[in-house]
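sorry for the late reply, my laptop died twice this morning and i had to redo everyting from scratch. anyway the thing you sent over, i finally got around to it. pasting the sequence first so we're on the same page, its 492 residues, then the predicted structure underneath. double check i copied it right bc i was rushing
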Amino acid sequence: MILNSLSLCYHNKLILAPMVRVGTLPMRLLALDYGADIVYCELIDLKMIQCKRVVNEVLSTVDFVAPDDRVVFRTCEREQNRVVFQMGTSDAERALAVARLVENDVAGIDVNMGCPKQYSTKGGMGAALLSDPDKIEKILSTLVKGTRRPVTCKIRILPSLEDTLSLVKRIERTGIAAIAVHGRKREERPQHPVSCEVIKAIADTLSIPVIANGGSHDHIQQYSDIEDFRQATAASSVMVARAAMWNPSIFLKEGLRPLEEVMQKYIRYAVQYDNHYTNTKYCLCQMLREQLESPQGRLLHAAQSSREICEAFGLGAFYEETTQELDAQQARLSAKTSEQTGEPAEDTSGVIKMAVKFDRRAYPAQITPKMCLLEWCRREKLAQPVYETVQRPLDRLFSSIVTVAEQKYQSTLWDKSKKLAEQAAAIVCLRSQGLPEGRLGEESPSLHKRKREAPDQDPGGPRAQELAQPGDLCKKPFVALGSGEESPLEGW
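ok and here's the structure:
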């Protein structure tokens, strides 16, 4: 990505608020499509601090990947100049470390000082910070001095106007670029009226932009209401949360688009950027709301994969086409890497090879190719399959060879975990023998259902971290992993 040296402007902007589980990449891109000027994500510093930045060439994204291979934060060039990274934090130095980790890939850094939920406040984060002005000052001052991106914060109002104004003036002196104000107290919830008067008093007091938030329940039902809310609060900009969660086209000047159209567009982004299906499903449920009991809502509720979600919304063909394109891109990159590094340092003559990958989404919940192969070997009174797996130091990907009846089988594509590589090798064996591999829709009546294996796929999806950073290049020999040995890179 190109380094963003522009300074983000917070005057007269429409902003997608930070929302846990909702503000992932598909929703942020959708909000931008419909007219949002700035979009926020929301994460906790303790999760980000242990992440590694990975350029994902398959998806054309930058991923921040946890040690267990989960994608904690995913972004792309399209939003780079407009995405603000909000973090929950209670420690200035940790906050600065996270800000420096992401600052080349985001437009701004924000500190969450308004979340009233227990998971946030019990760690001294979110609204808990409002009772510790000294810590607020230290965190914000450290970020302003230590990062190259504009720093902001989002607060709730205090019990008294006097205390609120005293706090925001102290916050302004830290040098932040803007302040977002949710016009409710820490203990108040959406059913309580938003205090436009307090936000207005803050806007009249400060010289930096004030971003008004909290109007979805009482004020914002359509695009024109956003400007009415801005005028009622005298704010520079408006940040929209739930109204945008329900229908992101709230930002569209021409008016709300039909919900089905919006949801289909969201699903397309979710598939294109390999969003985990549970997150996709959650966001779609927030959009459907009272329609969850409709026929389409029941189909969504029953969906257990991205494919099934797509089929519920008439996008089955799109899903197949897009996943095939992504798999082909992955295969091209894997082949290119193989040319650079060579095959495993062993005699592979006589090995039957195919370019295949294991996609968990293509199989029933309790059936895998390895199970099908083992069952077939038992029926044929053959020795059980033996898997030999190696890990490539260049990109930490895996390749497995399975031996059945003295014949070896291997996929030419490298995988992100030992388990995925073994499943791919089993697929090669089954396909070469013309045997069913357990895919959805296949007939395999003789296969006994067994306990499901540990998940092979992380929330970032099978293509989430295909390539490591250039700094990982090394010339160490391949690390052999026996079939009974666990790998620290396997899924969550």
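The radius of gyration is 25 Å.
thats about all i looked at so far, will dig more tmrw
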